[in-house]
Every structure is written in C-alpha cells, then in structure tokens.
Amino acid sequence: MQHDPALAKHVLLGLSAAQKALSSAWFYDDEGSRLFQRIMALPEYYLTRVEHQLLRDRADELARWIDPQRKPLDLIDLGSGDGEKTLSLCRSLHDRDVDCVYRPMDVSQHALAALSQRFEQHLPRLALEPLLGDYFEHWPLVRSERRQVAMLLGSNLGNLDEPRAVALLRSLHARLREGDMLLLGLDLAKDPRTVLAAYNDKQGVTAAFNLNLLRRLNRELGMDFDLARFSHYASYCPLEHVARSFLVSETEQAVSSRVLERTFTFNAGEAIYTEQSQKYTPEMIRELAAASGFALNSLITDDRRWYALAVLHWVA
Ligand SMILES: C[S@@+](CC[C@H](N)C(=O)[O-])C[C@H]1O[C@@H](n2cnc3c(N)ncnc32)[C@H](O)[C@@H]1O
To answer: Which residues contact 40 (CB under 8 A, 6 or more apart)?
Structure first.
C-alpha cells in the first residue's frame, strides 16, 4: 500500500504516547477540505465571516499597508485554502496597479484547485503561482528582488502551541528581510460560549470533520477505526484562551494498522487530542511578534473586537 511516511511516523508516535494526539494538519484530505468549506459557512463559525468581512471592508487600508511604495511584490498565502477571502485583497492590489504575484500554498490539492478556478473566473489578469506543499518545510519562492508579503490567515497560527507558533514565525522571519511584511489573521479572546459553539456546531459538521481524520487513517494506513465508536468532544478554557477538540473512544477497543503493523488500545472514555485553537489578546499578539523578530504595526479589528488582522513588520 502506498502511504505518506510522514503520516505513518506521526500516527505511530501520536497513538503510542501516554496522551494520544494527532495533528490537525492532517485533517485536510479532499473530504476534509470539503467539510472545512461547510464549516466556514456554519452560523456558529464566526471566524470566517468576520475575517472575510474585515478583508473586504478594509482591503484598501490593507493594500496601503502592504504597498506603501508601490513596489513589485510577491504575496505569499500560507495555507491559502480555497482563496475566497483573499480575493478582495488581491483585487484591491490589482486595482492599485501593483505588480503583484499571488503565491498561494496549501497541502490540499482540492483547496488549490478551487482557488485557481475562483481566481481564473474573478481575477484572470492577476499573476497566480499556486504551490502544493507544507509551509513548515518549503517556501514557495526562489529568492528574488521583489518585496515579500507573507500571510497566515484563517487563524491557522492558533493551531500551534506557543513554542511551535514562535518557531514557525521565526522561520518565516528568516525567509523575509528588511521591508517585508507578515499579515496574520487571528481570533481574539471573547465570550467562552461563543468560542465553544464554533467548535461544536449543532449540525455536527465539525464532528464529521474531526472524525474524517480516522477515515483518512483507515484509507491511507490500512487502519480499522470504527467511526461509530468514537465521538467528537470540544472544550474551551477561558484561562488559557484555548479551544481544544478530541475524539473520545466510546468503548474499550483495539485498532490495528496494516501499514504500521501495530495495534493501539483505547480505554472507554480515552481521548485523542486532535486540535487546538488559540485565541489571542492584543498583548499576546504583541509578545508573539516581538518573540519572533517582528513588530506589530497595526491591529485591524471588527467593531466587536472578535477577530484581528495583525500587520507585522520585519525587524532586523
Ligand atoms: C483553517 S484553513 C484556512 C484557509 C484560508 N487561509 C482561510 O483563511 O480561509 C487551513 C488551510 O491551511 C492548510 N494547511 C494546514 N497546514 C498546512 C501546512 N503545514 N502547509 C500548507 N498548508 C497547510 C489546509 O490545507 C487548509 O486549506
């Protein structure tokens, strides 16, 4: 059976640990990307709507931040998804006659195909250079003289704990240089009930998204997870401002993998930790930027202060 060795290694380590854990980075197979598109349209999932609205309403202001000198630039969208939200920003840059190459990068072929279709339809004259890949390992660009503006939207950074978030931002800092910028889309700390509902929707789409990870492991690693014997569980801790998702084993059970040649046992009620979603205060964002070699220039928020677009400048 053909399989991704990185996934095999990750699952072997993750399911052998005392606290079983799998990374949310593996959620996005084609079905996972489709389910995430449905999550983004859910009434409870405010994140996409608020960020999208900010990107639409404040596109000109952002374009001014991004391009104060109207120099040619590469816009590098890390974990771009289907590009629905970035379209208005790209349109704004395009309308300002900025010489801009849009470089979306994603691990999901499905997401990049949807993005390419969208941009060909709505912004056919924009230079588009999609790249299928992992932003922890690759950079979608050979060093050029053009300015680089990197974007990490959709609260992607919040999926990492603080040391890993700082490590990622430092690695981005190492790729950028004087005059370059980083734009982060970050979910802000708010009423815990509002946050929790976003990860525990009534229709059960988030549950299906979480459980789809097990379906992926069945297909790609020859595992025999019975999805009916695991349940989605979400929590939010207002002290740490972190939402966490788990898959809870309904019974005592054993699950095997043909590829890994291993069997993993689960107690009844045992939880696999699958996702963290950090929420931020403005102070946390400022500290994160400083710890990674950036300076926070501007924090663009909606009226309720639910979500922020953080404009970070590279500091030597
Ligand atoms: C939460 S979605 C956000 C999508 C988009 N940026 C938005 O704001 O709508 C996360 C996206 O990042 C991609 N992704 C997650 N981890 C990645 C990684 N390490 N490298 C590249 N893409 C990644 C996923 O495939 C998915 O399309």
So the answer is: 48, 84
Indicate the Cα dihedral angle 242, 246, 250, 253, nearest 10°.
-140
Question: For the domain 46-190+280-314, what is the CATH superfamily, name and number?
Answer: Vaccinia Virus protein VP39 (3.40.50.150)
C-alpha distance from residue 22 to each of 26, 210, 279 (Å): 8, 11, 20
Paired strand residues for 242:
237, 278
Q: Which of 135, 84, 88, 137 has its CA nearest to residue 111?
A: 84
Q: In this structure, are residues 116 and 104 in contact, taking their beta carbons and an 8 Å threshold?
A: no
Residue-range domain boundaries for the chain: 5-43+195-278, 46-190+280-314
Q: Residue 183: beta bridge partners?
A: 151, 311
Residues 6+ apart with CB under 8 A from 88: 55, 56, 59
Q: Which two tokens stand for residue 154?
A: 């959709």
**Which two structure tokens, joined as six digits, stand for 297?**
């220039």
Residues pairing with 77 in the sheet: 104, 151
Residue 1 tokens read as 């059976």
Q: How far is the C-alpha of 313 from the C-alpha of 63, rounded, in Å?
A: 14
From the CA of 156, give the closest atom in ligand 1. Answer: 1
- Å from CA of 109 to ligand 1 middle: 11
The kind and range of the H/E element at 193 are helix 192-198
Segment 222-257, tens digit of pLDDT:
999 999 999 999 999 999 999 999 999 999 999 999
Distance in Å, CA 294 to ligand 1 centroid: 22
Percent of the chain with pLDDT over 70: 98
Question: Is the CB of 279 inside a 6 Å radius of any atom of ligand 1?
Answer: no
